[in-house]
Amino acid sequence: MVAKLTGDNFEKEVVKSGTPVIIDFYADWCGPCRMMGPVFEEVSKDYAGKLKFVKLNTEENPKVSDMFGVQGIPCLIIVSKGKEAGRIVGYSPKEMLKQKIDDMLAKIK
Questions:
Q1: Any catalytic annotation for residue 75?
Q2: Which of 88, 90, 102, 103 is most buried, taking the most CB atoms under 10 A from its CB?
Q3: Is 33 marked active-site?
């Protein structure tokens, strides 16, 4: 399941998370973001209990986007123990996305 992230729940959902978190920075008007949404949702099922999946609308939450220096979307950032552990910019098909996530998670452990 993918949770909606806002500036209000950022601390609880990301900083204090017991598991690594992957944040999908997106905007409703962004074509590649709309393509990534279903892939992100589908991939989230494969990582249940290992990686928390959240989405953040950059238009509604610019402070969080600025905090991470997000300049292009879609942008997926993995956060572990409150710090950025890796990022994926642009659209990726399912298998490629899973490979990139696996590579980043391997470096965290």
A1: no
A2: 88
A3: yes
